[in-house]
Amino acid sequence: HFGSATHEAWVYVNGELAGHHKGGFTPFEVPVNELVHAGTNRVTVKLSNLLDQTTLPVGNYTETKDEDGNVIYHVDENFDFFNYAGLHRNVSLVATPTTYIDNISINPDVDLSTQHADVNVLVTASGDFDEIHVEIRDEDDQIVGESNGERNVISLDQVHLWQPLAAYLYSAKVSLLKMGHVVDVYTEPFGIRTVAAQEGKFLINGEPFYFKGFGKHEDTYVNGKGINEAYNVLDINLLKKMGANSFRTSHYPYSEEMMRLCDREGIVVIDETPAVGLMPAFNFDISSAMAGTKQKNPFWYDIATQDAHKQVIREMIDRDKNHACVVVWSIANEPATYLDGSYEYFAPMFELARELDPQKRPCTFVNIMLSTAGNDKCTDLVDILALNRYYGWYVNTGDLKTAAKDQEAELRTWQDLYPDKPIMFTEFGADTIAGMHSAYNEPFSEEYQVNYYKMNAAVFDKINNFVGEQLWNFADFQTKFGIQRIQGNKKGIFTRSREPKAAAIWLSQRWNNIPNFNYKK
Asked: Are 261 and 282 within 8 A, CB to CB?
């Protein structure tokens, strides 16, 4: 079992090809039964970090030859984070009986008025067995309900709801029996809660929820994107200390360990596919690009990521479907949905996600600044408007007064066009060099970052349907090399080593004074 292998892996056991997987941020398994023998066995993994117009993320791939005629491969990433590659997550040797539990799907149907839940548990299993037995246990490990069969509906009264920052986890213990003996058993933790996007609100357990938090990256010194559970715990502790309650897995599904931690700690998660770079060209010149968004462009007719996109939607939802922390599926980050052909590309993706998710969570994509209100072609597909906006940074740089005016005007237009859809920011931020100060509110200074967030907060609080602020970024992170980035992206409110900038202090004061529920009346 591979937690991930970035971005393409060929797995060999004792020199024989055992399996292959393409896609760098979701797990896969390779059967090795026929290839192992008693004694020492060698597992070899060949990896590729090449990206092109068929992969997610998207890369611009070219080849040249050196003076000896050898092919040199080149990837220009169409996105703004470093293209780390390798075995970033745990690799495990998994043994099961020949009769085993294959999959468990849990979907609680909750009546909030009576505190009653019918917990639907679907079990698939392989092999020779007589019976499937399911027990629901509470946090005291007491059995509160049980049933037999592949499809189970277990009724619970006086249920404890999973709440943001106040998690309660039940567990489903599933056993396969043959002639009265247990031949396989698996326990799946889960939470009971409801989520919905309606009437301009985002509801968790029937109450209007306000997202406070970040876009993040799996990115640390030394480890890069390699799993670091100590940093996961540190990040969640810092998040909670700031009064935040949520983050987005920008721009790929995070590790299974992080998802379990968020379940346990009550952190609300927007779970995102690696569909980043779905635009003609990544650059920082948003102002000039916005002037040309009406031009015809064949991008959506030329791109060949459809198969990879559907695969990762399947793999992400299959892995994360039972996590209470996941409240929204993000189908893509900043695609070029201002161009013709985007709706035809994305409609099947949204249809697939809604078909696969047993809990029918809201779905969205994260809207790029070029896709302004009235210009975007895919908003009808989403349940919640997730906007990335950089007024005061990439647009109106240094001019916060004009930035506030333009940002408020766009948000009011979105609200007028889609009065029933909640709106949130999933990115907004300003690059800030830790320790740089200015008496004149210069961009890149800590003072400018604080004033930038103050400007945004004042606008957010004016918009009735605005339901959340997830800034960019939690911490500075490594990007590809370029003159626009000095040792990576500096939009973090923490440095890469998790030291706070001044904005972290101001935001902590704001967020600790904003309740998780009923902030917007």
From this structure: no
